[in-house]
Amino acid sequence: MDMLFLRPSTQEEALALLTQYKQDAMIVAGGTDAVLRLTQKKTAPAVILSLDAIPERHEISASDDTVRLASGVTYNELLASDVLRLYRGLREAVLHLASPAIRAVANICTAAPAADCTTMLFALGASAVLVSNRGERRVPLDAFFVSTYKTIRESDELVTAIEIPALRPGEGTGYCRLSRRKAQDIGKILIGCRVRLDGERIAEVSLSLGALNPTVVHAAELEGLLVGKTPEEALALAAVTYPAEAKLRESYYKTYKQDAVCPAVVRALSMALADAKGERA
Q1: How far apart are the first and last CA of the chain?
Q2: Which residue among 5, 54, 105, 177 is least enclosed by CB atoms within 10 Å?
Q3: Three-class DSSP labels, 44-97
């Protein structure tokens, strides 16, 4: 049976096709991961559903409490957005990933465990907006991912947007990526950070760990230890506290990761703290 290629021009049309084909359809947004899975014969869908002709998928908007990225926003569009210029950590994540060509087409909806933007969005407290003909739901990213390349998205649902809580006074963000090369390489350690200062002490902190587990995770135990500390105390503590949630698998890079995770956390946290104080680390 020949594979069908369908290119709906509206979200309504796309949802109708998903309702019809469900698990037999492969959704293609940026398409960078889809090409690999198809050429490596890891999947053989009956239908390829391309979403690139739906214009509203590239919108970026903001309200008083939320920044909304439509699911087709590319990394280049994210970098060019005035709405996101204050999100230093997210911009750092984009600048360190892939290549200019990939950033022109790839979007933010992959569920890879070593995805830069996924890791940073996780730290930012972002949620995915899913829509089907049954309705709409919002799912925090820490509940959205199930395992490597698997999410809770149902077969008839589209991810239509990522929503990020707006930055408040005293908040800053930071990001650290360690990899063999600066670009076009999968990161070995990814750390995202969002922090809020209340006077001279940390009132809230969110730390995400990418490329260390089957999915991105929070360093919840370390987050709890850092609250109430001064920036200097927090950085000293992070330098010697290995995140309990970083469950490394056996690999060529395991020893390297064990040694490098704490310095990476310190780098991301230092950037976020400087950002919160209006400085640059």
Answers
A1: 57
A2: 5
A3: CCCEEEECCCCHHHHCEEECCCEEEEECCCEHHHHHHCCCCCCCHHHHHHHHCC
Per-residue pLDDT tens, the chain, 281 aa: give them.
588 999 999 999 999 999 999 999 998 887 767 777 788 887 889 999 999 899 888 899 999 999 999 988 888 888 899 999 999 999 999 887 766 666 766 655 666 767 888 899 999 999 999 999 999 999 999 999 888 778 899 999 999 999 999 999 999 999 999 987 655 567 889 999 999 999 999 999 999 999 998 889 999 999 999 999 999 999 999 999 999 999 888 888 899 899 999 999 999 999 999 999 998 65
Neighbours of 106 (CB within 10 A): 23
| Residue pair 125/205 in contact by the 8 Å Cβ criterion | no
Report yes or no: 37 and 43 within 8 Å, Cβ to Cβ: yes
Q: Where are the alpha helices (DSSP H) in the chain?
A: 11-21, 32-39, 75-80, 88-95, 100-103, 116-123, 141-144, 220-226, 231-240, 254-276
Report if pTM > 0.70: yes
Residue pair 119/82 in contact (Cβ under 8 Å)? The answer is no
Which residue type occupies 61?
Answer: S
Which residues lie closer than 8 Å to 62 by C-beta, 6 or more apart?
Answer: 68, 83, 166
